[in-house]
Write a structure and sequence with these properties.
Blueprint (H helix, E strand, L loop, with lengths): L1 H6 L8 H4 L6 E6 L9 H8 L8 E3 L11 E4 L6
Antiparallel strand pairs: 1-2, 1-3
Amino acid sequence: MLEVIQAAGFPMTCVCAQTNKFDACHIFVLEGRKGLQKMTKLENERLENMVGVASKSRFACLTVMGNDDATIELLGALSG
């Protein structure tokens, strides 16, 4: 998902692996969640430890797109 966001012209960078801080690429998937790859155990564990998480929450760096379209809301560093 991160590559798709960047290709669309949004300057989202991800430093999750280097900083072990998973908020800069936090997104809400508003539509098309069923078309995404299932959440990994690692992603689920990291989301459980964050404030402001909802059932729509994912991390752009860990979310793998399928063939279906998805509508997302950018949070974290790009949330304005």
